[in-house]
């Protein structure tokens, strides 16, 4: 039935009838009709044909939404809206006497999982353990053994109907019906027993061997398909099997059961990733819960977490027959095809497979393992025997479109991968992504076009290139975009062209044209791509391909494309990689890191590598290298050691031995960059604290503690301890005392190993016990272990896997409000996915050193990182720092073909060890060995061995040999150690095996050397970090799969990365390997041009057949660049020298087969190009005929010519240091003689190291896209993430770090094994953790120093947050105080005595330091000296230059809005637990005669504060503010309401009095201007606001004081009236209010101890007290209502005993006063005033005969606040907005003049003018302190050089006696009717004294002159009239000046 076959599009089984689909439909139809109430079942054929039509019409060829059988199954299984009622079921009664207990079988055996999880259970072959759910035991699973044929695959299909199971309790076998079985295990069902309903979970064994619940059994995909749309009918569940569950312990010879591993083909929209990618072991090494149960629980595999409905269709799959067929037994290969089908029992670890390998692949980008269409179908194809032996490589078959045949036979010799299929499928869905944005439907790229583009791509690949899925994806993307440009242009920017050109006008390709077009494309590539067209199925094409392979007809072919295309159906295709190199790289790239290790280990352990060793020994014509070594050792034992030690350093002593002066140990210092980064980190912390989310309350922390988590590398751990010790941070943070021990430092660094949890628990406990300490959890090298705690990718030996997730992501860390987590890494990409915990705003990137060519941070060192290394390879740079070794690569490639079964890592390692061994022998005199090494290795070895001889102290170079695989590293170490010993070089250089899990071991001789160099006297000292190996000549064999943050010393010269795993193409992996070489170079010396003398380092007696690196720098930098007029071009191949010739012999030895010409031609091309640069470096002394300016040798010569010419030219210049000709082994003397021996370590530290890479990696690193971005940057960023979609824009070189982060956040998703995988909250932003930051910067750039510096400045800031700058100034004018011996009170008196106080004279002088620049107030009592009180400060210095002291905030401080601790959350009204405080606005009006109108004020009263007010009952109108009684006494209550006038200080004003009041109940009112009401309300939602009328918006503080006082008096009257009705006397109502500045921060009390012998003896102490204590003390003053004003001193650190000897003073009070509004009813503040209004008010209160008392034992500290207050008034021109500075002299002008008017209140201009220029009005008064200016009824500041005398015109007022005084001037300011002519005539004036009359308008001015008869004594002139520089509408003030006659 061919129709059935063509319809299904799925894969049927080998040897199975092709009518399966028909049978299935028939069977389902019968079953459905039996169950259905509907009598007419749906016709079978319509099911078949309808489905066929749908499949053919749908692009995805697989939507089965109409299948009723599925719907019905789904309804029944999920209890969904099924119309049919459940069939009632009557259970058969159990047999007599059997057990009926729930959870036990009828034989009485326990089946509950919890009971038998640790028991050994016999499971027959082909059976699985599953968990059954019993309705009567909802919390338990019952264990059953079920034949896996009757269980479904991951698509919910392919389960045989029926049942076969065994009871694991009693062992009864052969239950053939589930009904019978459910009775036996006592399920006690009330409905029809169905296996789908009751068999719920697979059971697996965990790491401890206990049986646990595994993944859900996916019956028909119902679990996940649920309510999704018809586009995603069948989503599969995936078993993610941990790799750790290895087969190594397995002894089974049975085939591996199929891991159900299809990817959910249709479960996600394009951008959503395939959620579960199985790791390798999913296919290779996991046995289910049978006898060999895996050691680890299956991962949770619910795809229910999928977020969006799918836009990918599902390719359906016909399941196995529903009836049992003979041909389908459990042993036969399962439907989902074990990737390598059969296990080879002899080599259980040898299985290569791909599904999970994808985890280690760039390709894994999009890869899900194959979906159901990947199963084999049609005729089986037999894989020929001996395929590997014949072809020397395992072909890799990439499944493409359509059906893929079933493979049988020798399937171990092929590898099948679904990568390409997934790529095709993903690019089919490109258009859907646009449709989401509302675009019209756009056709996806056709299958034919996909295949054709794939052929184009393969054709243009070079012979040594390997195809990359990423490249292909971008090609599809570009092609599709070009064909639909008009539709999509509006949706996305154009993608830069980075890929091979494809035909731009793409017309539709038909399936008939496809083979012809593909053949045409492949015709140009010299048969590297071979096209096979087949007419019937892929099977015939594959068979033909195998036949051609066996016949050797595909030797030149790297890729075979098999196409099966016919008109009436979709195409089938696959691509086979037959190129030996490509197949090897691709197959090895499919191994995960752990499998790679296993594979290598297996080959070492089983001795497979011995063949390699024996092959090497045949190469050397003189015999085995070991024999040569032994012979050499015997012959030279005495001689060589002495000759080598000629230049050996002796222990340096004081006897005058030459000592190397260049060695210096770098001291710990902070570089400008590190400081900048630390400050960026700090600002991020502050922004978290400042945000309104309340996630970090910095104000509540007193100190810092921290823990640094590092990977489990001993060297990294010791290195971090070293940095920590030398940074001094522990002492600075106060965490440790002076005598620091190593044990104490270790408390702060956590190595993430098995013991980590104990230390971490201590850290958590500390954080809980110290809520006022901020704990910073630093996760260094944060990309290292990102495994989810639930999944382990690495073998169980690594217990640390998943530790980061377990520790750093634990609930305690996430929820602790005092833990901030800082991830620090050079490779942040894996932490920048769609599910990351870190907000993009919390990322800090290392700044770039240059911006627009400007050096931002002047550093004395230049950093060399990846971009600088890549830059050095570009044309025009002197030396390439990145190179590859072509002769090494050629040898490896040749050996790879000879030994196809060996892993290339093994081959590469053995070849490199051989090269190093041969090079050492060559340097030691066995010159014939130089033919058996490469020039590069010879150069490294020669420089290493000679380096220590050129330094008097024996300093040398370090060579890092990177061998990721630990067993191979051990082999290399042993071998090199042995060779070194045989050559007697033990004291010349050290070989160190660097293993991450252990410390450094070096020989005693070298330890002694290091101790001498570093001046260490400790006998037991051993180096513990690589940095301490500075100057040690050594080869460091650096092992471990990944570097873990180890830093290398400055003596590093060569970084040999030739052995890194080049198949693992992941951005992080590549960059961290290259990060080892990252380096700081002293920037004083230009790195590319060194001194000419630094030439050949080797001893001239020794051979000089290698190019020498340092010389190359010299000669290139000097000779060629300076002399050559043309800019030389460099070839892109940075082979250090003519490698092909230097190892000519070795290459020919390998090419025993017909050697592919590309190897040689490749090398010779390089040779030619290298020759091109060598010819410019010929010795000056050599007589050569080669012109220095030959044009570059063309690269396209014939191969033979090429070799010939290179040979000739190089040998002709034999005196060149490059002469690496193999024809001469005799040492050639070089014409350069070293003049002075210079320390090679010093030179090394001035140049970045040279890095050798594998060719494949070199090509990827150095190839760039059109924007200049290295190809490596666009690789998949990390193993455990994948691309969200192949539909993604290209990265660009122009992207900043921030843009890259956003790119990865959009386009990558974590795999299930990633710790962030479960961090998702649909559509919400709160997946970010608020206290988590990410610091990223290039490797080795100094991130550790930066974060330690950050801790330091964060600590300083916290201390700074708990400190405040308070004014600390001595009282002024102390010398003018009256000298009175009379003591009115005793020093220890607590309160003033009223009678005594009345006798105290008033001190007119202002002592407050803020009025230092104010006019002196004279009284007859004072003796004024004529000292020059000239202005000591400029106007703008008034605030900035006042003296302050930093004080630690006490627990009684007042705070601004930045403080929010737990206690005052409710007080502030910000606590989220409380409802946001509602407030109501209340108008409050009262009339005031002086203003001549009614004043309307507004109160904003929060609901929580309404109890302080009285409201009228019906209308809830505000009536009054409640006032207490004078007689009230309460400890928890402050009687006086506090008013704080404020402007411009909504954030910085100190309005939080909760702590200052010590929690006592108090009434606090903020007095604000109308325009600031909203902002104050926002910041202080729980404070009462008094809003001034809008007319006062531009008024000064006088207006606020005036209104506060008037309102308070009016309120006092209202309260007296209200309480009088309650029987309370008016005088009993409390009359005081407090008026406080908004900068009062703390209050102190002086405690006087008078217990001395004499009365006059006393001691005093000052302590910080609460404002509550002070106010309650003052309120308790006896006769308190008799005082009009009560205040206190301003704090000063210089307070002396004399000032507090008298505890009370009668003087001016400022800043914080208690005002008796009753007594001062008739004394008002001047509402017009801006400055000195308190002095003015004090003088008027005193003149009214009222008492002003200052408590000298109390003082207030005032905080320096740099914003708001008086500084909020800016005087600017009214005409232009441009800020022009206007001097005070311009503040007044002549009336009617053309003067510029100013936008400022007239009163402010007047006050400022008089302050700075009053001498113009009162010239006689200047510095004339004995003749002051008489000021009537007001005090105006006339500046410090003029004294004033205040008099009041009020009757009965207290004035000084002026009888003996003569005044130098008279100031009449807005004088009222109390001032009369007779009053003025009492005073005497000097002749020429001046008068200034100030009035509101010119009319009043004239009336005042007339009314006061001023013209009798004063002379006026017309020109003496002035006005303030205000426009008429701003009501200027007018002045009239005159002279005394």
Chart the SSEs and their pairings.
Blueprint: H1 2-8, H2 20-35, H3 44-57, H4 68-78, H5 113-116, E1 127-134, E2 137-147, E3 165-166, H6 178-184, H7 195-198, E4 199-205, E5 211-216, H8 222-225, H9 281-284, E6 376-383, H10 387-391, E7 396-399, E8 404-409, E9 415-417, H11 419-428, H12 430-436, H13 447-459, H14 469-483, H15 485-488, H16 513-522, E10 529-534, H17 538-550, E11 559-566, E12 569-577, H18 580-589, H19 593-605, H20 610-619, H21 625-644, H22 672-690, E13 703-710, H23 714-727, H24 729-732, H25 742-746, E14 749-751, H26 756-769, E15 773-780, H27 803-808, H28 811-815, E16 819-825, E17 843-845, E18 850-851, E19 854-855, E20 861-864, H29 866-872, E21 882-884, H30 886-898, H31 904-923, H32 935-947, E22 958-962, H33 966-982, E23 990-994, H34 1004-1013, E24 1034-1038, E25 1052-1056, H35 1067-1075, E26 1079-1082, H36 1109-1123, H37 1139-1142, H38 1144-1150, H39 1157-1174, H40 1199-1212, H41 1240-1245, E27 1250-1253, H42 1255-1262, E28 1281-1283, H43 1297-1307, E29 1308-1310, E30 1332-1336, H44 1343-1361, E31 1363-1367, H45 1394-1399, E32 1416-1417, H46 1437-1440, E33 1444-1448, H47 1465-1468, ...
Helix pairs in contact: 11-14, 13-16, 22-44, 23-44, 30-31, 30-39, 31-32, 31-33, 39-40
């Amino acid at each position: 039935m061919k129709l059935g076959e063509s319809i299904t599009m799925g894969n049927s089984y080998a040897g199975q009838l092709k009518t399966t689909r028909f049978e299935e439909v028939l069977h389902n139809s019968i079953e459905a009709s039996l169950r259905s109430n509907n009598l007419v079942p749906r016709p079978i054929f319509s099911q078949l044909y309808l489905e066929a039509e749908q499949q053919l019409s749908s692009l995805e060829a697989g939507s089965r939404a109409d299948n009723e059988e599925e719907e019905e199954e789904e309804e029944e299984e999920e209890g969904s809206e099924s119309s049919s009622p459940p069939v009632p079921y009557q259970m058969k009664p159990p047999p007599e006497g059997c057990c009926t207990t729930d959870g036990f079988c009828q034989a009485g055996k326990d089946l509950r999982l919890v009971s038998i999880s640790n028991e050994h259970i016999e499971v027959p072959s082909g059976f699985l353990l599953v968990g059954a759910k019993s309705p009567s035991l909802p919390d338990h699973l019952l264990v059953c053994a079920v034949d896996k044929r009757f269980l479904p695959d991951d698509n919910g299909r392919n389960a045989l109907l029926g049942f076969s199971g065994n009871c694991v309790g009693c062992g009864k076998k052969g239950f053939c019906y589930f009904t019978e079985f459910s009775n036996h295990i006592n399920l006690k069902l009330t409905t029809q027993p169905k296996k789908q309903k009751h068999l719920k979970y697979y059971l697996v064994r965990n790491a401890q061997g206990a049986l646990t619940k595994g993944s859900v059994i996916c019956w028909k995909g119902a679990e996940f398909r649920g309510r999704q749309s018809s586009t995603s009918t069948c989503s599969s569940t995936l078993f993610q099997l941990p790799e750790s569950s290895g087969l190594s312990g397995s002894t089974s010879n049975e085939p591996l059961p199929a891991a159900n591993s299809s990817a959910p083909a249709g479960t996600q929209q394009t951008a959503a990733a395939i959620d579960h990618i199985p790791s390798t072991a999913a296919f290779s090494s996991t046995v289910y819960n049978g006898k060999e149960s895996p050691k680890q629980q299956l991962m949770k595999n619910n795809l229910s977490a999928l977020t969006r409905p799918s836009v990918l269709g599902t390719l359906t799959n016909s399941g196995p027959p529903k009836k049992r067929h003979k041909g389908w037994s459990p042993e036969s290969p399962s439907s989902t095809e074990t990737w390598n089908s059969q296990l080879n029992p002899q080599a259980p670890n040898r299985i290569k497979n791909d599904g999970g390998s994808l985890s280690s692949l760039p390709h894994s980008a999009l890869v899900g393992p194959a979906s159901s269409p990947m199963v084999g179908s049609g005729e089986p194809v037999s894989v020929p025997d001996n395929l590997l032996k014949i072809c020397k490589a395992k072909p890799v078959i990439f499944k493409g479109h359509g059906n893929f045949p079933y493979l049988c036979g020798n399937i171990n010799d092929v590898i099948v991968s679904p990568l390409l299929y997934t790529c095709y499928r993903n690019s089919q869905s490109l258009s859907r992504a646009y449709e989401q944005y509302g675009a019209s439907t756009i056709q996806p790229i056709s299958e034919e076009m996909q295949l054709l583009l794939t052929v184009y791509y393969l054709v243009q690949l070079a012979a040594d290139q390997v195809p990359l899925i990423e490249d292909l994806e971008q090609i599809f993307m570009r092609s599709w975009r070009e064909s639909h440009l008009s539709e999509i242009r509006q949706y996305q920017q154009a993608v830069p062209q980075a890929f091979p050109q494809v035909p731009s006008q793409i017309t539709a390709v038909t399936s008939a044209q496809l083979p012809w077009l593909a053949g045409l494309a492949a015709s140009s590539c010299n048969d590297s791509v071979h096209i096979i067209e087949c007419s019937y199925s892929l099977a015939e094409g594959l068979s033909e391909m195998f036949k051609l392979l066996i016949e050797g007809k595909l030797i030149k072919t790297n890729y075979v494309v098999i196409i099966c295309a016919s008109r009436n159906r979709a195409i089938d295709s696959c691509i086979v990689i037959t190129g030996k190199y490509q197949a090897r790289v691709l197959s090895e790239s499919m191994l995960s890191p752990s499998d790679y290790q296993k594979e290598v280990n297996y080959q070492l352990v089983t001795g497979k590598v011995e063949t390699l060793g024996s092959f090497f020994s045949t190469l050397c014509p003189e015999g085995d290298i070991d024999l040569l070594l032994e012979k050499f050792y015997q012959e030279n034992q005495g001689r060589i050691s002495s000759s080598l030690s000629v230049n050996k350093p002796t222990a340096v002593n004081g006897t005058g031995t030459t000592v190397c002066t260049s060695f210096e140990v770098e001291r710990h210092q902070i570089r400008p960059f590190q400081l900048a980064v630390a400050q960026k980190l700090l600002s991020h912390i502050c922004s978290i604290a400042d945000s309104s989310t309340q996630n970090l309350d910095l104000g509540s922390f007193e100190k810092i503690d921290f823990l640094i988590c590092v990977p489990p590398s001993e060297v990294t751990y010791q290195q971090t301890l070293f940095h920590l010790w030398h940074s001094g941070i522990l002492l600075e943070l106060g965490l440790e005392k002076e005598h620091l021990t190593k044990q104490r430092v270790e408390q702060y660094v956590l190595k993430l190993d098995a013991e980590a949890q104990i230390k971490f628990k201590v850290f958590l406990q500390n954080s809980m016990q110290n809520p006022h300490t901020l704990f910073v959890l630093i996760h260094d090298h944060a990309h290292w272990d990102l495994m989810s705690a639930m999944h382990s990718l690495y073998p169980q030996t690594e217990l640390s896997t998943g530790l980061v997730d377990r520790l750093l992501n634990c609930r305690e860390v996430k929820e602790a409000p005092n833990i901030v987590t800082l991830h620090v890494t050079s490779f942040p990409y894996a932490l920048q996915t769609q599910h990351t915990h870190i907000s993009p705003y919390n990322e800090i990137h290392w700044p770039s050193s240059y911006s627009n060519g400007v050096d931002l941070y002047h550093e004395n060192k230049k950093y060399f990182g990846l971009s600088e290394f890549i830059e050095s390879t570009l044309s025009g740079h002197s030396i390439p720092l990145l190179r590859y070794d072509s002769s090494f690569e050629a040898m490896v490639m040749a050996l790879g073909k000879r030994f196809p079964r060996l892993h290339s890592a093994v081959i590469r390692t053995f070849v490199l060890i051989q090269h190093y061994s041969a090079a050492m022998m060559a340097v030691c005199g066995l010159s014939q060995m130089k033919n058996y090494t490469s020039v590069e290795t010879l150069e490294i070895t020669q420089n290493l061995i000679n380096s220590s001889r050129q330094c008097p102290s024996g300093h040398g170079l370090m060579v890092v040999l990177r061998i990721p695989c630990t067993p191979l590293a051990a082999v290399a170490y042993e071998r090199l150690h042995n060779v070194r010993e045989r050559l007697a070089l033990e004291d010349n250089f050290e070989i160190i095996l660097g293993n991450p899990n252990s410390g450094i071991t070096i020989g005693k001789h070298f330890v002694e050397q290091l101790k001498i160099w570093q001046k260490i006297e400790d006998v037991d000292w051993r180096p513990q970090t690589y940095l301490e190996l500075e100057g040690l000549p050594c080869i460091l064999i650096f092992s471990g799969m990944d570097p873990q943050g180890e830093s290398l010393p400055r003596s590093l010269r060569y970084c040999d990365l030739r052995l890194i795993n080049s198949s693992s193409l992941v951005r992080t992996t590549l960059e961290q390997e290259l990060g080892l070489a990252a380096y700081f170079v002293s920037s004083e010396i230009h790195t590319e041009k060194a001194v000419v003398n630094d030439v050949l380092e080797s001893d001239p007696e020794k051979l000089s057949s290698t190019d020498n690196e340092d010389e190359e720098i010299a000669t290139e930098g000097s000779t060629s660049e300076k002399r050559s007029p043309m800019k030389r071009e460099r070839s892109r191949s940075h082979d250090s020298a003519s490698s092909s010739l230097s190892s000519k012999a070795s290459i020919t030895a390998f090419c025993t087969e017909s050697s592919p010409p590309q190897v040689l031609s490749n090398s010779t091309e390089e040779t030619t190009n290298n020759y091109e640069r060598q010819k410019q470096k010929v010795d000056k002394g050599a007589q050569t005929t080669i012109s220095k300016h030959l044009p570059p040798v063309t690269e396209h010569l014939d191969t033979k010519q090429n070799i010939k010419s290179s040979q000739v030219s190089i040998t002709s210049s034999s005196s060149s240091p490059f002469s690496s000709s193999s024809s001469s082994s005799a040492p050639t003397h070089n014409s350069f003689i070293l003049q002075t021996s210079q320390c090679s370590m010093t030179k090394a530290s001035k140049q970045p190291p040279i890095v050798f890479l594998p060719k494949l990696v070199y090509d990827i690193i150095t190839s760039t896209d059109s924007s200049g971005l290295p190809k490596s940057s666009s690789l998949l960023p990390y193993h455990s993430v994948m691309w969200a979609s192949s539909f993604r824009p290209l990265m660009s070189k122009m992207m900043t770090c921030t843009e890259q982060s956003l790119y990865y956040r959009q386009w990558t998703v974590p795999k299930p094994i990633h710790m962030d995988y479960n961090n998702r909250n649909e559509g919400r932003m709160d997946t970010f953790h608020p206290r988590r930051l990410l610091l990223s910067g290039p490797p080795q750039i100094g991130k550790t120093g930066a974060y330690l510096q950050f801790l330091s400045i964060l600590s300083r800031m916290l201390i700074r947050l708990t400190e405040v700058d308070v004014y600390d100034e001595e009282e002024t004018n102390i010398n003018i105080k009256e000298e009175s011996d009379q003591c009115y009170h005793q020093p220890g008196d607590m309160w003033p005595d009223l009678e005594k106080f009345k006798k105290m004279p008033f001190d007119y002088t202002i002592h407050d330091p803020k009025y230092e620049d104010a006019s002196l107030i004279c009284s007859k009592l004072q003796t004024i000296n004529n000292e020059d009180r000239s202005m000591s400060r400029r106007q703008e210095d008034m605030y900035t230059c006042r003296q302050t002291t930093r004080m630690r905030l006490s627990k009684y401080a007042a705070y601004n809005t930045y403080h929010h601790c737990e206690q005052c959350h409710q007080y502030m009204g910000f606590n989220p637990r409380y409802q946001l405080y509602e407030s109501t606005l209340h108008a409050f009006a009262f009339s005031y005669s002086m203003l001549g109108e009614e004043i309307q004020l507004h109160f904003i009263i929060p609901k929580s504060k309404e109890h302080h007010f009285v409201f009228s009952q019906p209308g809830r109108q505000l009536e009054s503010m409640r006032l207490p009684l004078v007689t009230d006494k309460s400890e928890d209550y402050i009687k006086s309401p506090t008013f704080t006038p404020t402007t411009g200080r909504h954030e910085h004003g100190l309005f939080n009095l909760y702590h200052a009041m010590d929690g006592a109940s108090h009434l606090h009112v903020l007095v604000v201007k109308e325009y600031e009401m909203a902002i104050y309300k926002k910041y202080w939602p729980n404070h009462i606001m008094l809003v001034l009328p809008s007319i006062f918006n531009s008024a000064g503080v006088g207006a606020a004081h005036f209104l506060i006082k008037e309102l308070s008096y009016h309120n006092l009257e209202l309260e007296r009236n209200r309480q009088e009705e309650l029987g309370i006397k008016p005088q009993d109502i409390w009359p005081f209010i407090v008026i406080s500045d908004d900068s009062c921060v703390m209050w102190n009390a002086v405690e006087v101890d008078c217990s001395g012998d004499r009365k006059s003896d006393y001691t005093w102490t000052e302590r910080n007290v609460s404002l509550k204590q002070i106010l309650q003390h003052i309120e308790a003053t006896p006769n308190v209502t008799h005082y009009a004003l009560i205040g206190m001193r301003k704090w000063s650190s210089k307070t002396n005993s004399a000032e507090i000897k008298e505890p009370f003073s009668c003087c001016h009070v400022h800043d914080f006063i208690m005002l008796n509004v009753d007594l001062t009813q008739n004394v008002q503040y001047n509402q017009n005033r801006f400055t000195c209004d308190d002095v003015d008010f004090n003088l008027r209160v005193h003149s009214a005969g009222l008492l002003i008392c200052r408590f000298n034992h109390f003082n207030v500290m005032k905080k320096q606040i740099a914003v708001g207050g008086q500084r909020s008034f800016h005087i600017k021109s009214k005409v232009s907005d441009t800020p022009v500075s206007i001097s005070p002299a311009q503040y007044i002008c002549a009336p009617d003049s053309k003067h510029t008017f100013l936008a400022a209140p007239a009163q402010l201009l007047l006050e400022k003018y008089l302050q700075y220029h009053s001498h113009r009005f009162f010239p006689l008064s200047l510095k004339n302190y004995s003749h002051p200016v008489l000021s009537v009824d007001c005090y105006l500041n006339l500046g410090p050089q003029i004294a004033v005398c205040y008099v009041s015109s009020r009757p009965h007022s207290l004035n000084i006696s002026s009888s003996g005084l003569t005044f130098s001037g008279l100031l009449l300011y807005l004088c009222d009717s109390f001032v009369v002519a007779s009053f003025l005539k009492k005073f005497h004036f000097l002749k020429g004294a001046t008068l200034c009359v100030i009035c509101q308008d010119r009319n009043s001015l004239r009336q005042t002159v007339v009314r006061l008869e001023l013209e009798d004594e004063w002379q006026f002139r017309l020109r003496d009239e002035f006005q303030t520089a205000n426009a008429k509408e701003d009501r200027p003030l007018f002045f009239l000046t005159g002279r005394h006659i």
